[in-house]
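[job 0412] stage=complex_fold ligand=zinc ion status=START
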Amino acid sequence: MEVKALHSFNDYGINERFLTEAAKYPEYQLARVVAQYRGKYKVATAHGEALAQISGKMRFDTEELSAYPAVGDFVMISSQDGYPEAIIHHILTRKSLFVRKAVGVSGQAQPVAANIDTVFLCMSLNQNYNLNRMERYLSIAWDSGAVPVIVLTKSDLCRDLPDAVREVEQISSFSDVVTLSMFDTNITEKLAPYFFKNQTCAFIGSSGVGKSTIINRLLGEEALATREIGKADRGRHTTTGRELFPCPLGVVIDTPGMREMGADSADLSKAFQEIEELATQCKFRDCTHTSEPGCAILAAVADGRTDNRRLASYLKLRQEAGYEGLSSKEIEAKKLNRMFKEVGGMKNARKFAKEQQKRK
Ligand code: GDP
Ligand code: ZN
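[job 0412] stage=complex_fold status=DONE, emitting structure tokens
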């Protein structure tokens, strides 16, 4: 397949960190998950692409959905002559992870995409424009470990661009705000500063805001053809199609699960930094910031330092993420718990807790 000849394994976002960790498993080969199907994966390796499944041991040991591979994961595989599929034995430590609540009763966190360095939060400057939505994206992104960059699309449809940018900058916390339109000839140049060498980027945003338009531009003509082939195949066979693409600037992840995300897991401490700071000054430690006397946030709303919309957005996300009524310490514990489940089940978490206690 000529598609493979277009890229070498080095174009798949590998860096020193992953190479160092991979060296701990000399018996296996490093690979990166480029697509995911029911129970199967497509991986890029130094020898091209291969289908893979997880080892029996991994299946047996894995208690949590989030400990299964996701698109973007670096994995250690083995392949055997005569067998069509490679075996995935280990997932290398993730730099970042996007999860969503699995459908069904378990409600567990299901991995959607891993090792994204920068995530572009896309919102168009027409009907889709909505500050609450952007606050939601920011909270999800900060929780994942990826760095969010706000991308305001369809700038050609905006009547007062400076005004819109000003408004978004008020909620952007630590993120840059980039505006663009499909009529710009310099889309790639505008996004290039966020692709440090070999980095992996992804896009979040409602359907129709222009994500494909941007991604196609980043991929360039040649790769676009590859992508179209992949897309067409996706419907017919479940064994082809790619969701991770090398592009001239770096690597792009475009999985269906990534595009629209719910705030099942959110980090409000950066997206709502000023609100969380105010909360520490509320009179009651368990203040719900709705009606209590001595609420520092309500006081800030009253004198215009923040507004009702932002407070309502904050309270809603807190509730969705299941953090309602929890102190920041308890939220931290909840996250830590989840993190340990990711890296190797509760057994490891218990071991870690014991070691921590010994140290005290
Ligand atoms: P996606 O669903 O987020 O991937 O959005 P698409 O990239 O498929 O774009 C959806 C529609 O919006 C298409 O008809 C595009 O031509 C159009 N579109 C994308 N970017 C722009 C833009 O900057 N300005 C205008 N006016 N239309 C755009
Ligand atoms: Zn309060």
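Residues 153-154, 156-157, 181-182, 205, 207-213 surround guanosine-5'-diphosphate (ligand 1) (CB under 6 Å).
[job 0412] exit 0
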